Each structure stands twice: as C-alpha cells, then as structure tokens.
Automatic annotation (TrEMBL):
Similarity remark: Belongs to the pyridoxal phosphate-binding protein YggS/PROSC family.
Cofactor(s) named in the record: pyridoxal 5'-phosphate
Metal-binding keyword on record: no
GO MF annotation: an example: pyridoxal phosphate binding
Domain of life: Bacteria
UniProt KW keywords: Pyridoxal phosphate
Name by which UniProt lists this protein: Pyridoxal phosphate homeostasis protein
PANTHER family: PROLINE SYNTHETASE CO-TRANSCRIBED BACTERIAL HOMOLOG PROTEIN (PTHR10146), PYRIDOXAL PHOSPHATE HOMEOSTASIS PROTEIN (PTHR10146:SF14)
Signal peptide segment: none
Length: 215
C-alpha cells in the first residue's frame, strides 16, 4: 500500500470519529526495512519515523537526517538504560518508557543534556509476561512518579496481545490516559490503526502497510 493510501485512510478515520483532520500523527515504522525503501518514503515527504532499536536507528538515521530536513524520529521499541543517552541524543520521542529505573535514568540524563524527548509510558494492557510495560493497575502510580521526576510525559503507549480484539486494549489505554489528564495515545499498527483512531489515538505506528513485509 502506498503512503498516500495510508494517509487517506487515516484522514477518513479521523472524519468518521469526529476528530480534526490532522489530529493523528503517522509514525512510519522503518525498522528492518531496506534504506532504499525508507529513502523513497522520505522523498514522498514523510518526516516522522519509528525505529525499534537504538543501534539500528543510529546506523541509518544520522545520514538520512543530513539528507532530509525536519526528520522526527521516534523510538518505539524496548530501551535498555545503557542505551538511554544515545536514544535521547538521536530521537525526538520515546514510546517505551516502561519501568522506574529507566525513568530515573532519563531524568538524570535530561538534566545533564538540557533536553528530553517527548515521552510515552508503555502500559502492558494485556498483562502479558513477555511484554514490556507497567501493568494497568500500576499505571497511575508510574505516571505520577515520572511527572514527579519532571519528565515530559506526553501520553501512553500500548501493544495489544496478538490475536485479541485490540479495541478493548485501546479503550483501556484511553481510559487510563483520560483519568490522568494525558492527551497522547500511541496506539494502532498496520492491522488496526483505524480502530485506534476511532478510540482516540494521537499517534499510529504503521510499518508493513507502508513499506511491505520486513526482511
Ligand atoms: C514493528 C512495530 C510496529 C509496526 O508494526 P506493523 O504491523 O508493521 O505496522 C508498531 N509498533 C511497534 C512497537 C512495533 O514494534
């Protein structure tokens, strides 16, 4: 599917949900995609991209940022504390803040660097053992903790369990965000971004639907 098709599907979903056109930010997830495909999407004007791994992002994005102005890079995958500095130097947003230790590291580095990317706190809405994120019952406390550290918490992020109706998870995430006064909702991927938009997503993370299957 082309970038234009995805953008028009997002616009339709915004209108259908009674939301403003442009309310939703499309994050084009370029992880594991050949550079030529990423460059083609940059040529079409897309500037917001998502990467899963700091190392992979550091390998390709400094070059792209030299060639294309205004790149907005979002880290959407798990972040180890020993990669936090590199992530903060390279990325404009981090969607995977999932534990107090990482939050404290980010707060310390923010002081040191004098800036901090926009942060989304990951909630493990499906309470899956193998998945990162705070449990729904711990979310309010974690949000408060991050805010007390003066971190720029923009919103929440979730990755619903595979094979389940994502809608219930999006609703739960939206409910936690609303009761904490957070506006950002990073939810929805290739298979369910329209559902996520209907439920208030502000950022959708779409990879394979734009770029094709990953190598
Ligand atoms: C890979 C990935 C995506 C994009 O998935 P697609 O199904 O290719 O759209 C979105 N979010 C996260 C956290 C991912 O790791």
């Amino acid at each position: 599917m082309s970038l234009d098709e995805i953008k028009s599907r997002i616009a339709k979903a915004e209108v259908a949900a009674g939301r403003d056109l442009g309310a939703v930010t499309l994050i084009a997830v370029s992880k594991l995609q050949p550079n030529a495909r990423v460059a083609a999407v940059l040529e079409q004007g897309q500037r917001c991209f998502g990467e899963n791994r700091v190392q992979e992002a550091a390998g390709k994005w400094p070059d792209f940022m030299q060639r294309f102005e205004g790149v907005d890079l979002h880290l959407i995958g798990p972040l180890q504390t020993n990669k936090a500095r590199q992530a903060m130097e390279l990325c404009h947003a981090i969607h995977s803040v999932d534990r107090p230790k990482l939050a404290k590291t980010l707060a310390r580095l923010a002081q040191e660097l004098g800036h901090c990317p926009d942060l989304f706190l990951q909630v493990n809405t499906g309470e899956e053992d193998q998945k990162a994120g705070v449990l729904p019952t711990g979310a309010d406390g974690f949000i408060t903790e991050c805010q007390a550290l003066d971190l720029p918490v923009k919103g929440l992020m979730c990755i619903p369990p595979v094979g389940e109706d994502a809608s219930r998870h999006f609703a739960l995430l939206a409910e936690i965000a609303a009761r904490n006064g957070l506006e950002g909702l990073s939810m929805g991927m290739s298979s369910d971004f329209e559902t996520a938009i209907a439920q208030g997503a502000t950022h959708v993370r779409v990879g394979s639907a734009i770029f094709g299957t990953r190598g």
